[in-house]
Amino acid sequence: MDLEQIRSQHNLLKKWDYKWTPLDKGYTDKILYINVGDNDIRDKNVPPVMKEKFIGGKGYGLRLLWDGTKPDTKWDDPENEIIISSGPVGGITQYSGTGKSLVVSISPQTNSVIDSNVGGFFGPFLKFSGFDALEIQGRAKSDVVIFIDGVNHFVEIFEAPYEAADSHILAEQLTDIFADNESEKRNIGVVSSGSAAEHSLIGMLNFSFYDPRRKKVRLKQAGRGGIGSVFRNKRIKALVCKVPGVKGNLNNVVDLEAIMERGRRFNREIRELDDKQCQMRQTGTAHLMEIMNDHDLLPVHNYKFGSHPEAYRIDSTVWKSHFTQNVPDGCWFGCNMSCSKGVDNYEVQTGPYRGQLVIVDGPEYENAAGLGSNCGIFDPGYIIETNFYCDTYGICTITWSTLSAFVMECYENGILNKERTGGLDLRFGNSKDALEMLHQVARGEGFGKIAGTGVRRMKELFIANGWGEESFLRDIAMEAKGLEYSQYMSKESLAQQGGFAMTNKGPQHDEAWLIFMDMVNNQIPTFENKAEALHYFPMFRTWFGLVGLCKLPWNDVEPENNASTSEPAKVPEHVDNYVTIYKAVTGREFSKERLIEDSERVYNFQRVFNLRRGYGTRKFDAQPYRAAGPVTVEEYESRAERYDKQLREEIGTDPDGKTVTEKMKILREYREARYESLLDAVYKRRGWNNNGVPKIEFLKKIGMDFPEVIDVIREYQ
Q: Is residue 469 helix, strand or coil?
């Protein structure tokens, strides 16, 4: 069926014309509300207090979700919401990393609040169309597409029965349908998911951006927590936004020259320093592969080990040879980090798209490490293939990587077998059957239906079925709060243990990526340093999610003199850039101190939101033991010298004459106690009590003492 035939089958359900609100100082102060159940479309004013306290982006998402749902709302209830919002800085083009938006919902995986950071065009385009946020509720009777026309200022909901389900085709179809010519494709942003999101709890969203050099629609992902599954449960096939084009000052900022000056400064840093520091423009985040392997931090065999002799087969030099070089690869206009690397003209080897030539965005570090070393697979072709299918099927690659590694370890320990997997041989390294498991998820059949529920539910199923020892399964199941771990081996980094398990949404590196500071650069050597970093680092990352910024330009490329500054871990020059830019966009009086204050309000609100959902206390900040130390004898023996030294020098126990099992028990008690001490220290620094609940006096201090917030926490004081 050609595009005109597909378009002809669109059945218009609702059209709503609106009066366009141009941006002023980064805001429109309007929210677009859509209920796909009853086709209600309207705009809502942003209350002044919401703008003041929640800023934008993730803050707006959390506030709207709180107001739109009840404490017991389930992820698949029609009243669950998906909120997409950028932020006041989002959409400027004069500084790198300013095209981000945040997606917020009740998660199918965690049953609590999830937020996911994503690039691509849709978030800024939504702003340019006249709305600071999109709030979606309800469940449609059939598959629908929502079209936001920021040129002619109307919104449509229409049935779309014949568009493809999977993103790499669907995004192309919709871009072609709504662009009148080739040049207009740059003005279309599409949000979609895929067939696997329909049959699993681990679905993600793809946000498109058009690459005029390749003449291809490309994809960035809002990956974590199953928001794509919510999207497809609501029977939404896609969101489409069209704008007249992107030009110099659509945000209508207060001081454009100040932003341009900081942009020129940072662009010069990238040109002069990136090749020497991170090589983002050559390999993207995949440059981390050999660094993590060299420092014993690369996840191998479900986080058992931190390095592998075959890791060179999937290191950054390999990815550089696959990535197209010397092509600007930013996922937003004006971004010179250029980290959105891609594999051009990849011929798909398996599945329904076998033989197609496609562009695969990535692999990024998380995909290469997770799909590769963590599953014992050192085949770049497999990683590219799986990366492509996860994206087009609408599955989070981080979640898929970690759950695959968990399944493989279960298989090797007899917890799973061919009878239980429907014939799949899921040993470490078996790429063929690992791919088949993924295709099964997309088809909604076989063992794929079990895998698609995620690590937590699989763990509980295996325990309930009596398929393995409960304590072992709980130790090796790399999830916390119901969310799978990102791809860093945290055993030797207490800071990263906290950075994973203490997160509000679950172990995702974008909240507290401390592994590099802790284990590579040695910037937080003491216990006190680590506890302090677990306060300020999440606050910086939260603020980026409030205003529409990418996290990478903050500390992935640093000024040459950064090491000699008073706080090198914070990259003071870049913090000053952000303070200057925010003031220049909004006209608001601002400082690095207020940056933290803004973040503290929203971060604590999210903690209370978790509490409202039945979580948000100390017991939910627990981690699986493998995140902290060796579970098996072979794990201990792989680092025996290091562990024996710790027993002797830190614990005061002579390891000589003790069995490995005895030494593991002593080490475990020590490491678990250290983690509990870390919780105590971080809670105190954050203004929380020993149960991990914000204190009322602290909420009053930061201006988050709304009556409805205090009502939730009062009984936990």
A: coil
- With CA atoms as reference, report the closest residue to 190 among 161, 222, 213: 222
CATH topology identical between 3-242 and 256-484 = no
Domain at 494-716: CATH code: 1.10.599.10
Integer Cα distance of 97 and 548 in angstroms: 8
pTM, two decimal places = 0.97
> Per-domain residue ranges for the chain?
3-242, 256-484, 494-716
363 upstream amide cis, omega within 30 of 0: yes
Q: Which residues contact 259 (CB under 8 A, 6 or more apart)?
A: 92, 94, 95, 253, 580, 581, 584, 585
In contact, 17 and 178? CB cutoff 8 Å: no
Closest by CA to 384, choosing from 424, 344, 338, 326, is 344
Q: How far apart are CA 23 and CA 533, in angstroms?
A: 36
- The CATH class, in words, for 256-484 is mainly alpha
The first and second tokens of residue 315, run together, are 């290191």
Tell me the H-state helices in 339-469. 365-367, 380-393, 397-412, 418-421, 431-443, 448-451, 455-464
Mean pLDDT, the chain cut into blocks of 10 residues (717 residues total)? 90 97 97 98 98 98 98 98 97 94 98 96 97 98 98 98 96 96 96 97 97 94 96 98 94 96 93 86 91 96 97 96 89 87 96 97 94 98 98 97 98 98 98 98 98 98 97 98 97 95 93 88 90 93 95 88 90 95 96 96 98 98 98 97 96 96 98 97 97 98 97 96
**DSSP string spanning 332-348?**
STT--S----EEEEEEP
CA dihedral 152, 68, 203, 422 (to 10 degrees): -140
User: Could you tell me the two tokens for 713?
Assistant: 């926490």
Class of domain 3-242: alpha beta
